[in-house]
Amino acid sequence: MNRSAKLVLALVVPAAMTATVLTAPVAHADDRTCRGTIGQRQLDENVIVPRGATCTLAGTRVDGNVFVRDNATLIAKGVRVGGNVQAEDHQRVVVRHRQVDGKARRSRVEGSIQLEHGGGGKLLRTVVGADIQLFSNDGRFVVRRNVVGGNLQCKSNDPAPVGGNNTVEGNKEDQCQNL
Question: What angle do CA 75, 58, 61 make, to 5 degrees?
Fold first, then answer.
């Protein structure tokens, strides 16, 4: 390679790299922190219940996921969640129906509900597109009248979850086999 070609490469390559860096979009996850109550509205982002906080979602539509952090509480009534509800080391998680004009409006979670290493809660009259998984929780869980598109899996919870009348397309496993 002659000296002129080296000079052109030395000038063009860094300029092209700079243009790429300057024009590349920056990706940020959209998250909404919830402390208190969010009512009937649509959220296009994930909802985060931060450590130690309590969040009530009442008739809320969440297009993303709902994440419940350490020692936090989620009360979700008549919600629609486009993704998953996930909690680890949580205080309490309740996903249930909501009474509207004397009728029970079910909550709907398109993905899974995964609750691990936390306290108790309730899953009542909720439609879940994939699985419900309750693993290694140390509070009382009531699981009643849900419609589950995947499996209902409960393992190593103390006490074991109680409830019944759940419709499950997959399997009812371990501590939830009779629910």
Answer: 105
Alpha-carbon distance of 23 to 165, in angstroms, equals 55
In this prediction the pTM is: 0.82
Segments making up each domain of the chain, as ranges: 28-174
Q: Is 161 left (phi over 0), alpha (psi -120 to 50) or beta?
A: beta
Measured in whole angstroms, the distance separating CA 151 from the mean position of its chain's CA atoms is 17
In sequence order, what are the residues at sequence separation of 6 or more whose Cβ sits closer than 8 angstroms to the Cβ of residue 162?
Answer: 140, 141, 142, 143, 179
Locus of tokens 């909501």: 98
Exposure string (b/e) for 135-148, b if CB count within 10 Å is 16 or more? bebebbbbbbbbeb
Provide the pLDDT for residue 172: 98
Blockwise average pLDDT, block size 10, the chain, 179 residues: 50 43 41 96 97 97 98 98 98 93 90 97 97 97 98 97 98 97
Cα(4)–Cα(8) distance, integer angstroms = 6
